[in-house]
Amino acid sequence: MKKLAVLLPAYNAASYIKESINSVLNQTFVDFDLYVYDDCSTDETAKIIKSYQDLRVFYIQNGTNIGVTKTLNKGLDFLLPKYEFIARMDADDWCFAKRFEKQLEVLEKQPEIILCGTQGYWLKDLKIQPNEGWTYPTDPKYIKYYLLFGATFGHSSVIMRSQTMIANNLRYDETKINCQDWELWVRMLRVGKLVNLPDFLMKYRILENSNHRATEKQKIHYQNRSKIIANYWGDFGVVFSEKEINDFYYSTQKVLDSEFKIKLEQFIDAFNSVFLISKSELSREDQKNFSYLLARKLLSYWKRSGVSRKNLSIWFLMVRKVQFMNKAWLLKSLIR
């Protein structure tokens, strides 16, 4: 079995795919093959890919346009039996030269890790060299809880362990045109450890017409998010409907004070419960980070609800009910 395959789906990516491929071919770890799956592009994507003379580059064209999720599964079905690890890469992103080297070092030393991501910079212009960026959690124990609120991994940064994917029949959910990565990570978490490196090894290109930013796809995006999150809360013994998740996490619809109090108390109870579970697993620092994350989610819902911040009964409810944070810290978080 060969060591590493890179799975890169592409569709009408002529304006940036060369940057992506070049960054992959420039890796310090060189023992890999790059498979570019072209989903019937109508621009110069195919011509650009075929221009490479590097024997590690393989071009595959779908017979018809099937979308990114089915394309990814098509690639996994072909590559998993042949390679020990599968790296993801997107046609519009860029990776630093030591990405594969650093990720494989971790995966080979720790066989219990089944997926390894990295930190990355989110940019409209990949020529920019940032000095810092916001970070994803690195500890698998904190990742377990962070997945309740976000996808937690840069999709094109991850490397997956093939043996685990095969043994547990893990593939992307083809009913989803977006959030398919988040849904897969939740299922992978149930059978092994997922980690992020602390190193910034990716640049992600911000495109306004991407699967989750395009206006016409945002409704589906939030529906998929809500379904994934509601399902995952069940792993912690908490039952939420997709609508309840959407209302609390994303909705900007104004609500009556009485309705807001009921929903707020429901989520405070859930947050208290999950934080109590997490205390036996998380480090002191991650406990602190998690408690602030929970407080920010409550405040976000309050701001979006249209309920006045001067409503003293809400303040009393928060102070009385919240158990996941020191009362003084809670008040400071809410005042900010």
TrEMBL record:
One of its GO terms (molecular function) is transferase activity. Keywords: Transferase. Residues 6-143 form the Glycosyltransferase 2-like domain. It comes from the Bacteria. This is Glycosyltransferase family 2 protein. The lineage of its organism: Bacteria, Pseudomonadati, Bacteroidota, Flavobacteriia, Flavobacteriales.
